Amino acid sequence: QVQLVESGGGLVQTEGSLRLSCAASGRTLSRQSMAWFRQAPGKERELVAAVTWSGATLYYVDSVKGRFTISRDDAKNTVYLQMNNLKPEDTAVYYCAVGYGTPAAYRYWGQGTQVTVSS
Fold first, then answer.
1. According to the 3-state scheme, what is the secondary structure of 12-39?
2. Low-confidence residues of the chain: pLDDT under 70
3. What are φ and ψ of residue 77, in 5° steps?
4. How far apart are the first and last CA of the chain?
5. Residue-wise DSSP of the chain
6. 116 in Cβ contact with 12 (< 8 Å)
7. Engineered SS bond to 110: which of 4, 49, 55, 97, CB 3.0-4.6 Å?
């Protein structure tokens, strides 16, 4: 079993920055792809970014390209999402997950952290 705990969310103004962290326990993530999702009120959960086990970027959704950066520190068993130049449409609950690909590939999820961007 893997437990994921997200942190770093909060309230920020437009064009501000936040750094989300996803700390894992129970099992090493060193051979696992990792992903960040988000879900805004009334919308479906969407994949935001993903990274391979070696740290190579797998995916960014178009709306965050050039603003968000996914990274990982396997020594700390932690994955990060650096979010710059935030916009009100980035407001959502952000979740990290283990895996990448089809929906069945995401085996473990965190509880989420709220990001609110004020205009």
1. EECCCCEEEEEEEECCCCCCCCEEEEEE
2. none
3. 55, 45
4. 40
5. --EEEEE--EEEETT--EEEEEEEESS--TTS-EEEEEE-TTS--EEEEEE-TTS-EEEE-GGGTTTEEEEEETTTTEEEEEE-S--GGG-EEEEEEE--SSGGG--EE---EEEEEE-
6. yes
7. 4
Strands 78-83 and 18-25: antiparallel
The pair phi, psi for residue 87, each rounded to 5°, is -125, 155
Structure tokens of 67?
């603003």
Pairing of strands 34-39, 78-83: unpaired
How much is the pLDDT for 20? 98
